[in-house]
Design a protein that fits this description.
- The protein has 656 residues and is mainly alpha-helical.
- 68% of the residues lie in helices and 5% in strands.
- It contains 26 helices and three strands.
- Helix 3 packs parallel to helix 12 and helix 9 crosses helix 19.
């Protein structure tokens, strides 16, 4: 017995010791510090792309500068401010030239459209014409805007009855919002910046479309806008006045040195004046004198006389007295194209290309300057002032103050397009949140209508009442839209729609071009064609499409909030082909098309950036998975090393 214990006792003790350390090793492996869950918890949380980014100041703090450095920084800041104001001035002027270019390209077409009152009597056709004409001539109902040539627009509207003009006013409200959407396209270089900028621009689009979607059927059914504005105009004593002319004083010297247009030509075409059709829109003589003389003229017969008492016959000739006006050219214009022997279309295309080039260049430079200026404490102060709400219980007042600020700024610059285009890059770089940009855009809509009201009061006495009523229709339309889509937070649907579209365009930047083409051209033309085909065709095609759209929206909402209410097959769209519920196949096709056909270096660089972003994302995912398996809790190699260390410790202990 003693021999057995002597022979095997040490071996049993060795095995027992190894077993104890083996159990300790298993406990170490099972500890939370070595678990995969701990690794997942330690990963950084994903940031919200709609959070305003921190504008970091990489420069030397002010307190660390000496006197020379402080003076130099002040001079640089003043220089940047002067450059910023200069680029803003060029930006506004380029928008004005862009308006003139669109009028030269499509102004006569716009005049021809307004001749057909039978088409305009159809509310949907009138709405679409308002959109398309605004796109052609870059004109809204802003009567004194420097970008919108509303003197011409107002004359065109005056040829129509007020009831016919109401849908056109709604259409111009939609068409004028395309400008800031195009401005957002210039920020497509950086994904998150483009996401915010495009959402900040399209929130204006969605407000206008949703307002029309509700108020146009209401107007057709009840005449709500016409009746209310008629009561207002009848209750006041209207006197003529003069429209304000604020920013034009600053911009006209430059824009009029480049091009001047004769807006009376378009209004002449709209009134079917045969002489106007052969005239050029380019103004040649800036100062003329009209001499009106009572003269004897020959007419075909007595029925053509101005009055029986002023009519006499001499043989085969009939004479009467008429006022004959003769125009004498006194002073020629001095703009660049006054003596150019080119057609209106050619001049318009030249100005269109140049104005777009200047506009995009100025916008890019403005964004760069704002990025360099809005840093450190300056950025903190500006963001805090623009985005902070009043303390409880007055937080709700902040949005309405933003509406007043937007209205006031638009009244000063006399253009909603200029104001909304100016705040779009600020939304993109993260200075203004989309929640604050929304009430500013609503205020801009109000500001543009107050300018129209003042300008309408400068109309001649015979058209003053109708002009004021149409301006009030525009004002009441925007006020009604604000009541529908702003006061209650859950009714602020345009913000949610704009963010959803921003997420899509942030992932697939090419979709922004598709949105602009479909929303401002394809959809209006489709509605226009259906409305011309008659109410039966419009109802037969439009109602099923509208019902299908409503069903899809309801299913999407239920999929996100109450999926249990839906059948199993409708809880996702996976039962459809991939192309029917995802843009990924289209994205691949666009990527291949760009790779093969794109000759522009900038477009190629944008495509390569997309590929680099995706490759970087895949690499990060791969690195994350590798890090998980390289951890001591998961790696086989490290397990073997830990086991060898334990075996060595066991051997040392057994040796002792």
């Amino acid at each position: 017995m003693m021999d057995w214990e002597n022979q095997y006792g040490s071996r049993v003790h060795e095995l027992r010791t190894k077993m104890v350390f083996f159990l300790m090793f298993i406990e170490i492996k099972a500890s939370p510090a070595h678990s995969t869950a701990a690794l997942i918890v330690d990963e950084p949380e994903e940031t919200d792309p709609w959070d305003l980014p921190e504008l970091k100041d990489a420069g030397v703090p002010w307190s660390a500068l000496d006197t020379k450095g402080k003076v130099l920084r002040v001079l640089i800041s003043v220089g940047k401010l002067i450059l910023l104001l200069g680029f803003l001035y060029m930006f506004v002027c380029s928008l004005d030239i862009l308006s003139s270019a669109f009028q030269l390209v499509g102004g006569k077409t716009a005049g021809d459209i307004f001749q057909d009152n039978e088409i305009l009597s159809n509310p949907l056709a009138g709405l679409v014409i308002g959109v398309l004409v605004t796109l052609l001539v870059q004109s809204s109902s802003t009567s004194s805007s420097i970008v919108v040539n509303t003197s011409m627009h107002r004359k065109l509207i005056m040829m129509l009855t007020v009831q016919v003009a109401v849908p056109i006013i709604m259409g111009t409200n939609i068409g004028t919002s395309v400008t800031n959407t195009l401005v957002a396209m210039t920020q497509a270089g950086e994904r998150n910046t483009f996401r915010r900028a495009f959402a900040g621009a399209t929130v204006h689009d969605f407000f206008n479309w949703l307002s029309v979607l509700v108020l146009l059927p209401l107007e057709v059914a009840s005449g709500y806008l016409f009746v209310v504005t008629k009561l207002i105009t009848d209750s006041f004593e209207i006197q003529s006045g003069e429209a304000p002319d604020l920013l034009n004083v600053i911009t006209d010297p430059l824009t009029e040195s480049i091009i001047e247009l004769d807006a009376s030509v378009i209004s002449g075409i709209a009134t079917d004046d045969p002489e106007a059709k052969n005239k050029s829109l380019i103004k040649r003589w800036c100062q003329t004198f009209t001499n009106t003389t009572l003269m004897n003229v020959t007419v075909p017969g007595p029925e053509n006389c101005t009055s029986p008492s002023l009519c006499w016959v001499d043989g085969n000739y009939t004479f009467t007295l008429k006022n004959i006006s003769q125009i004498y050219n006194i002073k020629k214009c001095t703009h660049l194209f006054v003596d150019v022997n080119l057609s209106d279309m050619a001049v318009g295309l030249i100005l269109l290309a140049l104005s777009l080039l200047v506009l995009c260049s100025c916008l890019i430079l403005i964004v760069k300057l704002l990025n360099s200026m809005l840093k450190g404490q300056v950025a903190v102060v500006i963001k805090k002032v623009l985005n902070t709400n009043f303390p409880f219980p007055f937080g709700w007042v902040t949005g309405y103050i933003a509406i007043l600020v937007g209205a006031g700024m638009t009244f000063i610059v006399q253009s909603s397009s200029v104001f909304t285009s100016a705040i779009t890059p600020l939304v993109g770089i993260g200075v203004i949140s989309i929640e604050r940009a929304y009430p500013l855009c609503l205020g801009s809509n109000i500001g543009t209508t107050t300018t129209a009201i003042l300008a309408a009061m400068a109309s001649p006495g015979e058209t003053l009442a109708d002009a004021l009523q149409i301006a009030l229709v525009h004002f009441l339309f925007n006020i009604s839209g604000i009541i529908l889509w702003y006061p209650i937070p859950f009714t602020r649907v345009p913000i949610r729609l704009a963010k959803g579209l921003g997420n899509i365009t942030g992932k697939y930047r090419w979709f922004a071009v598709v949105y602009i083409i479909c929303c401002f051209f394809v959809l209006p033309l489709l509605i226009f064609a259906l409305s011309l085909a008659g109410w039966k065709v419009l109802v037969g095609v439009g109602v099923p499409l509208l019902i299908m759209l409503i069903i899809i929206i309801v299913i999407n909402i239920l999929q996100k909030r109450k999926p249990g209410w839906l059948p199993a097959v409708l809880r996702s769209w996976d039962f459809l082909p991939l192309w029917a519920h995802s843009l990924a196949p289209c994205d691949k096709a666009v990527g291949v098309l760009i790779a093969k056909c794109c000759c522009c270096c900038k477009c190629c660089q944008a495509a390569s950036d997309d590929q680099e972003d995706r490759a970087e994302q895949l690499e990060n995912n791969k690195t994350t998975h590798t890090a998980v398996y390289d951890n001591h809790a998961m790696s086989v190699e490290n397990e073997a090393e830990d086991g060898m260390k334990i075996e060595l410790n066991i051997l040392k202990m057994t040796t002792l």
